[in-house]
Structure formats: C-alpha cells, structure tokens
Amino acid sequence: MGRALGVACAVFAVGAIALAGQTVTVAAETAKPVITGARVAGDGERTRFVLDVDTQIEPAISGLAAPYRLIIDLPEVSFEIPDDAGETGRGLVADWRFGLFARGKSRIVMDLTGPVTVDKTFFLPAVDDQPARLVVDLVKSTPEGFAAFVESSRARKSADEKKAAKTDKLRTPVDSNKPVIVLDPGHGGIDDGATGVDGTLEKAIVLEFAKLLKAKLDESGLYTVHLTRDDDRFIPLGRRVDIGHELAADLFVSIHADSVRWGRKLARGSTVYTLSDKASDQLAENLAESENMSDVIAGVDLHDEPEEVTDILLDLARRETRTFSVYFAKTLVSELKTAVRLINNPHRSAGFRVLKAHDVPSVLLELGYLSNEHDEKLLVSAEWRERMALAVSEAIHGFFRPRLARQQEMPSQ
C-alpha cells in the first residue's frame, strides 16, 4: 500500500487584483502550510515524531485500537516530503502514512507496535536556519491505558468536526426524469490503494477513468451523473454508500484497479463484482477483505458505525436491489467482452462494504490489476481507457434502455 499522497497539488498562478482602489492577493487566501520534513526517533520505551513545517499548525491527536493506531489530524497541508516517507518506522511506530483526508483536513496515521500514551505535544518556532517543528512524544503504555486514551479522544470530538462532516454531503438537485448514476473512484487522499509494478497509484488511475466515464455519460444528456470524489481526497466506505442513498441513485459503480495474487499466478483482466454474503471464490474473498480495510488504513473510527437493521421490508428491498445489480453486472460483462481482456469467470461476488446500499443497484468494477505489469501498461494507456469507457457507457445505456424508452413514450405534461 502506498504511503504518500502521490498526486501533486495544482499550482495556481495568482496575481494582485485591483478593485475599488484596493489590492487583493489571491495567493494569501489559498496558501497552505507546508511540511518539508518528517522523522521518527527513539526506542521501544519512548519515541519522538517530528514534522518540519513552515508555519505553526495545531494537531488533533486521537487513537484507535484493533490494530493500535495513532491519528494526527491537521489543517490541510502540502506534504513536500518523499513519497516513500513512513514506509518504515522506529521504536513504538511500525510505519506511518499521510495525505488529504477530507476537504480542509490532512491526516497522518501511525501503525503502532503496541499501546502508547501521548506524553506531550509541542511546537518549536524557527530559529536561524532551523525550520519550525511540530513534536509528538510517545511513551509505552498498557492496553488499559490506551483504551482510556481512545475513549477520551472520542469524547473530545468538536462541534466543528461534526459540522464539517455535514457540509461534505452532496446536495446537488436531482432531475427526477433522468436516471441518477453515482461513479465511485476508490481510495483517495491518505489511502493510495494499490501501487503498480512501475509505481502507478490506484487512486489516481481510477479517478482519471471516472472523470472520463462521467464526461461520456454527460455527453449523452440522458443521465444525472455524480462522482463520490472529484479530487484526491479520502471518502470513508460508509460515506460512499450514503452518497448513493442521499442522491437516490439508480446505479452505483465503484471503480478500482487492485493488486492481488490468485494462487500462484497474478490476477489479470477486467472483473465485475457484486455483493454476496459468501464469496464466489478465493480471489473475490481476498479482494473484498483488502477493500474493506480501506477505513482502517485511513484511521477511520468504526466505533459508532451502525449495526445492520433486521427488517422484512429492508430484506425484500435488498433482494430486489441485488437482482438489479446482478442484471447490470451481466450486461457490463457482455459489453466488456467485445472491448477489453477479461479475467476468467469475470462476474464474481463477495461481501464488499461499499456495495451494501439496500436501495441502490451497485457493482464494483476492477479495470485491471496493478499487480500485473501487462494490466498496468493498459491502465495508463489513453487508448485503452477510451475503449473501456465506451464499453461501460454502452452497458449503462443497455441497462437503462427500457426505462428511457418508457419515458420517451409518455406524453409530455
């Protein structure tokens, strides 16, 4: 799993704007703190984590257990540190990763070797040629001590964080006459997803493809199309499901390009997955297990995740939704056969959390597998992505053709 953000921030050319006799500098409004260095020092009893930064920033530190993790939330920053920073740790820190977590928020997640206590956190201003530094000191603790720290950090969640979560919801008006499609580029931000043989990041590939597919569907004028993310940010799995539900989506397509092994061979070729309680095969089970770890990788607190509701009406809705999901999956496989290489048995199933909306037909599309060098070359090919996007578009047209035909036959009001 990649550690760094992996996608460079856009550079904006900004100048001074003269307005009503005053000069407004856009750069001052858009500047973000810059982290220029990061390191871990210490041993199994006491460990220090240091960030070099160009301006003072206030961290919010929390903990998560099973496995032991330390979460450092920061205002949105620019990480100007090596991509492989954090792949190895020291002392109480096994490894760590970093990236954009949500709009206006960056995050560092540390995998710990065991329970810790945050001994102290402090900021050192710049002196002479030494940069300013944010320092976090950790000391070895007990499971009971760490559990108390986790509970106290949950209790410190601010009202501002709750408001931020609410404003992140999609509230775009929906045209009730058009089918609503939600395209879900997997991973993002702090969660790179898979990394290819030549270093290709899954989160970047799937976002680029989702934007291309959206553009093609928008050209038809037949659908209202949304992306769960349109930039390099992390979206929790449950939030992705909620987006489809809130937008009353008629189809949800989660897009991935994972890295998995299948027996002694590397998996290769496009695959379509639907939800099932029992995995169709070992490859599907392994992939679902890997994908369902996305929230753990990004340091999401699963403590308050609601339990599944047992209700006969919900159960009926789920069954109907799964029927439509399987129907679209078969339609998609049929189109893909004529355009790209497919894996053997291209329609598979497993317990993917991102496909669990009870009222939205949902599939997970593996464009290919970055663990295979041949697939990776195709995934970065503009010509291949064009063929793939056209095939997926045709499958969507086929899925909605009966509904669109009925709408065209209806007399205009």
UniProtKB/TrEMBL annotation:
<feature type="domain" description="MurNAc-LAA">
    <location>
        <begin position="241"/>
        <end position="397"/>
    </location>
</feature>
<feature type="signal peptide">
    <location>
        <begin position="1"/>
        <end position="20"/>
    </location>
</feature>
<keyword id="KW-0732">Signal</keyword>
<dbReference type="InterPro" id="IPR050695">
    <property type="entry name" value="N-acetylmuramoyl_amidase_3"/>
</dbReference>
<protein>
    <recommendedName>
        <fullName>N-acetylmuramoyl-L-alanine amidase</fullName>
        <ecNumber>3.5.1.28</ecNumber>
    </recommendedName>
</protein>
<dbReference type="Pfam" id="PF01520">
    <property type="entry name" value="Amidase_3"/>
</dbReference>
<dbReference type="InterPro" id="IPR002508">
    <property type="entry name" value="MurNAc-LAA_cat"/>
</dbReference>
<dbReference type="GO" id="GO:0008745">
    <property type="term" value="F:N-acetylmuramoyl-L-alanine amidase activity"/>
</dbReference>
<keyword id="KW-0378">Hydrolase</keyword>
